[in-house]
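Dear colleague,

Thank you for sharing your sequence with our group. We've completed the structure prediction you requested, and as agreed, I am returning the results in plain text so they can be pasted directly into your records. Please verify that the sequence below matches your submission; if there's any discrepancy, let me know and we will rerun it promptly.
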Amino acid sequence: MRSFFIYLIAISLAVSAVGKGMPVFLKTSQILHIVVIDNMHDKRSADRNHYFESTFEELVEERAFPMACVIQEFGIRVPMNQPCVYVTIQKWGYSSLGQIEVRLSAYIRDPVTWTKKQLGIHVAESSKIPVGTIDSKKIAIYNETLKQALATLLDRVEPMVRHVPKSVSYTHLTLPTNREV
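Please find the predicted structure tokens below.
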């Protein structure tokens, strides 16, 4: 009876430890879904999502990221067998010094174990102060600062990607025969 309880406790500890501290591995054949959670609701949130998507796609192309990425807004379902990175925009605006500051927090969901792994908080500040400049220059500074924060995020995600070789398909082999009579 005592051994049964010890066995039960050991199983419960093993089950509760699954996913804690375990690495997440991503395959190049999978699609990485980026779910953007924007808690700052204002009239320009649609523009902010557009700028986020265009800046992220530009960064992925520059770095030649080995996985296909899809950017989605929060609330859209992600397929069960695909990995997902949840990015929360905590701040994307002026700091107390008048500089533009971007603060993102992120975590990744493992498609196999459904566990979450924190990717940390990624902060970037611009050294340029966009006071009284033209709107296109302000947008460029905003996107440049966002790109710096997203680069630190991709630095955390990229080591998780494993290049899995395509499975070798064996074709029908014919063995040479001795047809000498």
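Summary note from our side: The first strand starts at residue 26 and ends at 27.

Kind regards,
the structure core
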